[in-house]
């Protein structure tokens, strides 16, 4: 945003608040809503003309321009963050932003079909879904934001465990195990026995050590525990990657930070299982109508109703600190106005230097994201679903799970005859990420091709040759992941 | 409802007060209602009272009956007005619906609804919607399932659609007995009428086995799948058509018949029979209960008799019209007064229709039994039979073989009848493969987990497999029962690990032991001994199944020839089935667990002379549980006691004993070592058993 636009803003009244939140991303929006709900005065600022920041859902053009804009540092007079003393009252620390996106690659295959692109609501942070039984969903219900938005059930979770790349439903509950036709009877028995073991561990009262999993096992790697339970590789892989959603290949770990511990694995499994069938719907997940961007926006609306003041299109230039007691005092806006609060929440993408505060070193990881818009569902009998490609299922060097979410047009993310497919995985290196994005894309394309070839058996063969491309549009990008080290439930890539 | 935690009871005082108020309200309603009912008042106000009563307590059956009368009354008032009639029935449905909301397990309410629906005035679509609601709330409620079947029938819903409904319910939650049950009912129906897609029982059952495997393996602890599996197994192995499995005299036998105690054995004869009454019993034994055995359905071809004169009698404890064993008696009087002679006899069964199973299924095949009867003319026909020697069941009196004559114990052969290949009971390749597949699967499951019902199922599968393989073998007696040991081991294991069902496993175990020990004439010969008392020259062959820890008797078809049977030192509680041993004269049941005379009821049909029931538990149990399991003698039409005892208490006290013994002409009875056996009882026995010569080892 140009400062000229911002300077034309009328001054914000009052200029002192209990809390100032910068950035309307999901966490900032929740904080603003929470503070307003308990009667605190709050100011919520965002430099963008829309709500949601990096969690927004955008039209096709907004989407590409936002990515491009954030692939370079925001224009700022100084290239290095600085601080200076101003008016002899405050220490002023200038804010810069991290460069979040790189390696952006957008391909338009069928511009005609896409039209002006305004019928699309593409998630910047896809694929994201909500577990029905986790604290995020509880928050949605408790905070009352459900009145501003609607959720739809994600039909189910698939995983790709076979070399043929077939999508199989994850046997995530007793009923799903019963219905499954890919597991042998013995494997079914082993899997439900494991579910029961977990259940009896949870049900066991304090002191009943026989029914509980031992503390040593709980503290050890989940993969080891599954081995100890003599579960075959296939079942192990389903539990680790498709139910407990382990990010990294648990069999070839070089870094202990990436080990999924038994206790965490079990926590995730339990949340997953509690989610299945909750609210009388299939599957474990929810997806918001009109895209994930609805979620921060709904929290913002909740906050606004409770008195929070909103200012969009307003970049924040600097933090103000008290010279004497070195407390944060407020921020300076692009309009030139200074607003004051002793509590300031910054979106994690901001960076600054200060004499009194040095940011802790953040472990930098990357997440490679891909989006494609397709004409036909990846799976003929299902429209909105999650797919997990466990590590090494796509490529021998695939070290992390690739997770895919297909959302159908009836969820208002695209025209009703189309589907948006999101996929993402963690990676350490952009080149490696790009390669795997392409591999994933071709695996997904082959699913579409399989479907076409099935069709061709019933229709005229020459028709398939001249048919329209099944992929209309796709985008790949690598996003810097700034990991906030809080205990968050396993929502996709917080 | 299922799976819902019980609500904590309200604090006592509060609950008491609340229930007192409720009771008071109900009491007023009830008395007003009864007044209306008595005076046949069917006004709107009166109906409202009954509705209120039923809505708060649907269990008042009189209330529903009153409403039925009221409906009929109202209908008679508003004849020829279809609209009014519809309103009347709608109101009934509304009352039932709100009564069901109070308690949707109320039999009365569901029944009333059926009654209303059966009048044909109400839309049925609404019923299905209501059912969907109820079945969503509690998918296993059998009232709702029952009602669903009723509505489906009224609506003429296709059975296929209802089958699909059970599939959906099972996929939602397979722990649902009602759904599995309904599935079995619908499938039986579809298979029976050979509906399109259900022509091949084999194909349908194979698919059902696959379905139920998913449930069983997913959660072996859930029993509903196992029960469906048991049904499938029964469908697989149960022969629909009855067939004849054995007879006495056996097919192809050469029988020596004499009127005194020891017919001379000749080299050619394979069996001998002493007929003091100068009659020869003919016994037919079927695989299941059959009816319609009579002189027109069974042809007996012999110069000894004309088959039309023969009277066939079912041998059954309840003397109904159906039995597994049927008997008739040939009169040999004329033949026995003539010279020794061989008479061929041929019995043909199934050539004319009429012998059917209880469900009216015809015999599987025709059978023919042919044997020869050698009537021996003896000089010493009229030996004095007044004095009878005491039978002593001591080991010393049983001899494996006759040393002097160097002959082996003549085992009376039994022959399981072979059946023409094309008409075998279920034993196709499909049957064999299905059972083999099941056996492999459950062995695999049991190698993973320990599961009682799994072991039981495996034991049942192995037994069924052996049974099928036996009928595939020709002759059936030649089949070697390869799984008996494994079956025995499974049941032994179950007896240990599941003591609450011990007796059932014990019975099954006994059955398997008997299967093994009576499998062939060879194995039977190991248990056959000459009985020879030192004082006498007469000898009888005794089958000794003693000290084998049996709890019951079985495989009667292989024992039809037995005249002397030693079952002592077992754990026998019931002798049901023994009534078919129509030649049995000597029986030792000592040292068993017989608890009452009622349990000995099958003996009443036998020509028993010697009975030893020493050291059982008769009289030790104040409550005779057998009475509840079998028909009570009191419920039958018995003639009044035809003897007058000096003490009228005797009959009152020993009624069961009296019923048992008055029909028997025992010459010897050992009954010592039972609680009941005191001096008073002994004197009672002496009075009842007029032919008795030996009692508890004492000569009378």
From TrEMBL, chain A:
GO biological process, one term: vesicle-mediated transport
Tagged with keyword Phosphoprotein: no
Localization of this protein: Cytoplasm
First-listed, main subcellular location of the protein, grouped into a coarse class: cytoplasm
Pfam family, one: GDI
Gene3D superfamilies (UniProt xref): FAD/NAD(P)-binding domain, Guanine Nucleotide Dissociation Inhibitor, domain 1, Guanine Nucleotide Dissociation Inhibitor, domain 2
Cytoplasm found in the keyword field: yes
Keywords, in A-Z order: Cytoplasm, GTPase activation
GO CC, alphabetical: cytosol; nucleus; Rab-protein geranylgeranyltransferase complex
Gene Ontology molecular-function annotations: GDP-dissociation inhibitor activity; GTPase activator activity
Organism superkingdom: Eukaryota
Family, per entry: Belongs to the Rab GDI family.
Matching PANTHER family: CHM, RAB ESCORT PROTEIN 1, RAB GDP-DISSOCIATION INHIBITOR
Protein name as it appears in the record: Rab GDP dissociation inhibitor
UniProtKB/TrEMBL annotation, chain B:
Gene3D superfamilies: Protein prenylyltransferase, Ribonuclease Inhibitor
One Pfam assignment: LRR_4
Gene Ontology annotations for the cellular component aspect, listed alphabetically: Rab-protein geranylgeranyltransferase complex
GO molecular function annotation: Rab geranylgeranyltransferase activity
Top-rank taxon: Eukaryota
Family: Belongs to the protein prenyltransferase subunit alpha family.
EC numbers, comma separated: 2.5.1.60
UniProt keyword Repeat present: yes
Full protein name: Geranylgeranyl transferase type-2 subunit alpha
Catalysed reactions, semicolon-separated: geranylgeranyl diphosphate + L-cysteinyl-[protein] = S-geranylgeranyl-L-cysteinyl-[protein] + diphosphate
PANTHER family: GERANYLGERANYL TRANSFERASE TYPE-2 SUBUNIT ALPHA (PTHR11129:SF2), PROTEIN FARNESYLTRANSFERASE ALPHA SUBUNIT/RAB GERANYLGERANYL TRANSFERASE ALPHA SUBUNIT (PTHR11129)
GO biological process per UniProt: prenylation
InterPro entries listed in its UniProt record: Leu-rich_rpt (IPR001611), Leu-rich_rpt_4 (IPR025875), LRR_dom_sf (IPR032675), Prenyl_trans_a (IPR002088)
Keyword Glycosyltransferase belongs to the record: no
Organism in which the protein naturally occurs: Kalanchoe fedtschenkoi
Protein role: Catalyzes the transfer of a geranyl-geranyl moiety from geranyl-geranyl pyrophosphate to cysteines occuring in specific C-terminal amino acid sequences.
PROSITE patterns, alphabetized: LRR (PS51450), PFTA (PS51147)
The entry's keywords: Leucine-rich repeat, Prenyltransferase, Repeat, Transferase
């Amino acid at each position: 945003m140009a400062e000229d636009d911002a300077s034309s803003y009328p001054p914000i009244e009052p200029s002192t608040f209990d809390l100032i939140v910068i950035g309307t991303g999901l966490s900032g929006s929740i904080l603003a809503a929470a503070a307003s709900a308990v009667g605190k005065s709050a100011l919520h600022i965002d430099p963008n003309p829309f709500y949601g920041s990096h969690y927004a859902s955008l039209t096709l053009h907004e989407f590409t321009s936002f990515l491009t804009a954030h692939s370079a540092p925001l224009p700022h007079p100084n290239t290095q963050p600085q601080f200076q003393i101003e008016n002899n009252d405050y220490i002023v620390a200038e804010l810069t932003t991290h460069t979040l996106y790189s390696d952006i690659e957008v391909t338009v295959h069928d511009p005609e079909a896409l039209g002006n692109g305004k019928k699309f609501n593409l998630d910047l942070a896809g694929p994201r879904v909500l577990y029905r039984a986790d604290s995020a969903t509880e928050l949605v219900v408790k905070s009352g934001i459900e009145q501003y938005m609607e959720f739809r059930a994600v039909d189910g979770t698939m995983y790709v465990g076979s070399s043929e790349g077939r999508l199989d439903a994850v046997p995530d509950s007793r009923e799903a195990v019963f219905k499954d036709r890919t597991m042998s009877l013995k494997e079914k028995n082993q899997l439900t026995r494991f579910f029961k073991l977990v259940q009896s561990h949870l049900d066991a009262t304090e002191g009943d050590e026989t029914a509980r999993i031992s503390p040593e096992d709980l503290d050890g790697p989940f993969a080891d525990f599954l081995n100890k339970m003599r579960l075959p590789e296939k079942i192990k892989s389903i539990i680790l990657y498709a139910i407990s959603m382990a990010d990294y290949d648990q069999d070839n770990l070089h870094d202990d930070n990436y080990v999924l511990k038994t206790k965490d694995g079990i926590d995730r499994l339990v949340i997953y299982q509690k989610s299945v069938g909750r609210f009388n719907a299939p599957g474990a997940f929810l997806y918001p109508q009109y895209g994930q961007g609805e979620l921060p926006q709904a929290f913002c609306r909740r906050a606004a109703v409770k008195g929070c003041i909103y200012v969009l299109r307003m970049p924040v230039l600097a933090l103000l600190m008290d010279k004497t007691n070195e407390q944060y005092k407020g921020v300076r806006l692009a309009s030139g106005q200074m607003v004051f609060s002793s509590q300031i929440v910054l979106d994690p993408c901001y960076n600054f230097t200060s004499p009194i505060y040095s940011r802790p070193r953040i472990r930098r990881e990357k997440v490679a994201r891909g989006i494609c818009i397709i004409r036909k569902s990846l799976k003929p009998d299902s429209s909105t679903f999650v797919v997990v490609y466990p590590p090494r299922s796509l490529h021998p060097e695939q070290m992390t799970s690739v997770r895919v979410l297909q959302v159908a047009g009836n969820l208002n993310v695209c025209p009703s005859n189309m589907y948006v497919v999101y996929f993402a995985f963690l990676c350490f290196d952009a080149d490696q990420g790009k390669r795997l994005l392409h591999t994933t894309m071709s695996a997904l394309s082959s699913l579409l091709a399989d479907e076409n070839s099935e069709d061709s058996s019933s229709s005229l063969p020459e028709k398939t040759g001249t048919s329209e491309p099944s992929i209309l549009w796709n985008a790949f990008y690598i996003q810097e992941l700034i990991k906030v080290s809080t205990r968050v439930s396993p929502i996709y890539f917080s | 409802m299922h799976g819902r935690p019980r609500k904590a009871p309200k604090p006592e005082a509060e609950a008491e007060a609340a229930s007192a108020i409720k009771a008071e309200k109900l009491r007023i309603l009830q008395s007003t209602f009864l007044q209306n009912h008595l005076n046949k008042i069917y006004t709107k106000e009166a109906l409202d009272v009954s509705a209120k009563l039923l809505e708060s307590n649907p269990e008042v059956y009189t209330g529903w009956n009153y409403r039925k009368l009221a409906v009929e009354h109202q209908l008679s008032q508003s004849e020829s007005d279809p609209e009014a009639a519809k309103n009347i029935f709608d109101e009934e449905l509304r009352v039932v619906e709100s009564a069901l909301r109070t308690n949707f397990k109320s039999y009365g309410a569901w029944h009333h609804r059926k009654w209303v629906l059966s009048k044909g005035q109400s839309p049925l679509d609404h019923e299905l919607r209501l059912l969907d609601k109820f079945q969503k709330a509690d998918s296993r409620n059998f009232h709702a399932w029952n009602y669903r079947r009723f509505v489906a029938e009224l609506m003429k819903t296709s059975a296929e659609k209802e089958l699909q409904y059970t599939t959906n319910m099972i996929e939602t939650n397979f722990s649902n007995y009602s759904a599995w049950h309904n599935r079995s009912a619908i499938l039986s129906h579809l298979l029976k009428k050979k509906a399109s897609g259900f022509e091949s029982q084999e194909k349908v059952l194979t698919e059902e086995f696959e379905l139920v495997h998913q449930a069983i393996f997913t959660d072996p602890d859930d029993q509903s799948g196992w029960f469906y599996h048991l049904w499938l197994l029964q469908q697989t192995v149960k022969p629909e058509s009855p067939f004849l499995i054995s007879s006495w005299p056996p097919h192809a036998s050469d029988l020596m018949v004499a009127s005194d105690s020891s017919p001379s054995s000749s080299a050619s004869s394979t069996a001998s029979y002493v007929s003091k009454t100068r009659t020869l019993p003919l016994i037919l034994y079927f695989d299941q209960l059959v009816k319609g055995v009579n002189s027109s359905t069974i042809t007996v071809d012999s110069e000894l008799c004309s088959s039309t004169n023969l009277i066939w009698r079912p041998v059954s404890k309840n003397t109904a019209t159906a039995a597994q064993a049927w008997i008739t008696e040939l009169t040999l009087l004329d033949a026995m007064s003539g010279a020794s002679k061989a008479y061929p006899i041929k019995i043909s069964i199934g050539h004319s229709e009429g012998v059917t199973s209880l469900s009216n299924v015809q015999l599987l095949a025709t059978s023919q039994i042919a044997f020869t009867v050698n009537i021996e003319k003896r000089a010493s026909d009229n030996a004095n039979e007044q004095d009878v020697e005491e039978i002593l069941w001591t080991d010393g009196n049983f001899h494996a073989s006759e040393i002097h004559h160097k002959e082996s114990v003549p085992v009376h052969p039994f022959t399981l009848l072979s059946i023409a290949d094309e008409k075998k009971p279920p034993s196709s390749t499909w049957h064999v493969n299905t059972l083999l597949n099941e056996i492999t699967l459950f062995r695999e499951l049991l190698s993973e987990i320990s599961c009682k019902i799994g072991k039981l199922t495996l034991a049942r599968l192995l037994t069924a497999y052996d049974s099928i393989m036996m009928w595939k073998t020709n002759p059936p007696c030649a089949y070697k029962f390869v799984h008996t040991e494994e079956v025995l081991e499974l049941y032994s294991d179950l007896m240990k690990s599941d003591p609450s069902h011990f007796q059932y496993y014990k019975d099954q175990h006994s059955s398997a032991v008997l299967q093994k020990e009576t499998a062939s004439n060879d194995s039977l010969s190991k248990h056959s001994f000459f009985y020879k008392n030192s004082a006498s020259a007469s000898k009888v062959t005794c089958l000794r199944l003693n000290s084998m820890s049996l709890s019951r008797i079985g495989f009667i078809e292989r024992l039809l020839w037995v005249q002397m049977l030693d079952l002592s030192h077992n754990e026998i509680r019931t002798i049901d089935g023994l009534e078919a041993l129509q030649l049995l004269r000597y029986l030792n049941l000592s040292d068993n667990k017989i608890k009452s005379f009622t349990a000995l009821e099958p003996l009443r049909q036998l020509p028993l002379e010697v009975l030893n029931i020493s050291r059982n538990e008769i009289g030790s149990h104040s409550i005779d549980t057998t009475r509840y399991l079998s028909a009570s003698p009191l419920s039958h039409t018995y003639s009044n006691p035809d003897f007058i005892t000096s003490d009228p208490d005797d009959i009152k006290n020993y009624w069961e004993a009296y019923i048992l013994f008055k029909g028997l002409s025992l010459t010897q009875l050992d009954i010592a070592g039972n609680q009941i056996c005191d001096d008073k009882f002994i004197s009672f026995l002496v009075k009842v058993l007029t032919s008795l010569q030996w009692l508890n080892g004492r000569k009378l």
